Amino acid sequence: MSGGKIRAVARNAGLALGLPVALLALWWIASAGSANFYFPPLQTIAQMFVEVWVSPRIFDDVLPSLGRLAAGYFGAVALGLIIGIPIGLSRTLRNVLEPVLEFLRAIPPPALVPILILLAGIGDTMKTLVIISGCIWPVLLNTVEGVRGRDEVLEDVVRSYRIRGLARLWHFIIPSASPQMFTGMRQALAIGIILMVISEMFAASNGLGFAIIQFERSFAVAEMWTGIIMLGLIGILLSQIFRLVERRMLAWYHGLRQSQRPGG
When you count CB atoms within 10 A of the terminal residue's CB, does the N or C end of the chain come out lower? Predict the structure, then answer.
């Protein structure tokens, strides 16, 4: 790696880490010596974080939460793509389904928790369904818009070469819509983390949401803060993983955009 690339990587890392480090330093200084029961010093929270999460609890609470999140998220992505592509391709289907979809989209997923408890019990199935009920909408709506917004010139080329059926879907429609599909998946990931926690706060015997509520009910405030920080760290990690996957899957798209920039 050349010196210029090393400097660029170092500069980007500095820009990415600069604000978080500054905020943590400010929090550390501002909370030092705090006697407020609800806002303990960050040093105390950091020490408690190691005690709470560098332990078997990470297997008892964190891994089950991630498993539910993965099941709900990937289920929502699959359903969003399977339903969204036909709707995007057919104006008639959009007109028929739009009122029903708008009605369902307006229902907050947490409001479905009591119904899902009655239908699916309080196990992992209910929590997975709650995550699906919220994550599906960004994927579905972005897929519909991505399919609808495909390039008309390329559409004519595909039609002139008589490319039909699965070949048209795989080589033209999905690549054309994939940037917006990934936008919906990125939005769904953040929603999934929120719903994962909410579903575990209603009825659960493990998970991050359950742990945070238990800490709050037992007035273990420092431990409660460690659960919140753990959620933030998981969000950052999953976001970075998603960004790497997105850049790999859409390398052609980012390369095309780069070439279209002035001087690109």
Answer: N
- Domains assigned to the chain: 41-249 (1.10.3720.10)
Q: Tell me: the pLDDT tens digits for 121-144?
A: 888 999 999 999 999 999 999 999
- CA distance linking residue 9 with residue 3, whole number of Å: 10
- Contact predicate 185/139, CB 8 Å: yes
Contact 41, 33 (CB under 8 A): yes
- How many whole angstroms separate alpha carbon 112 and alpha carbon 104? 11
For 202-235, give the DSSP string. Answer: HS-SSSHHHHHHHHHHTT-HHHHHHHHHHHHHHH
Token pair, residue 49, equals 């974080």
Q: Element (H or E) spanning 181, and its range?
A: helix 174-202
- pLDDT, residue 150, reads 86
Token readout for 208 is 């991050």
| Cβ 61 vs Cβ 242: under 8 Å | no
b/e burial code for range 189-206 (CB count within 10 A of at least 16 → b): bebbbbbbbbbbbbbbeb
Residue 69 contacts residue 131 (beta carbons within 8 Å): yes
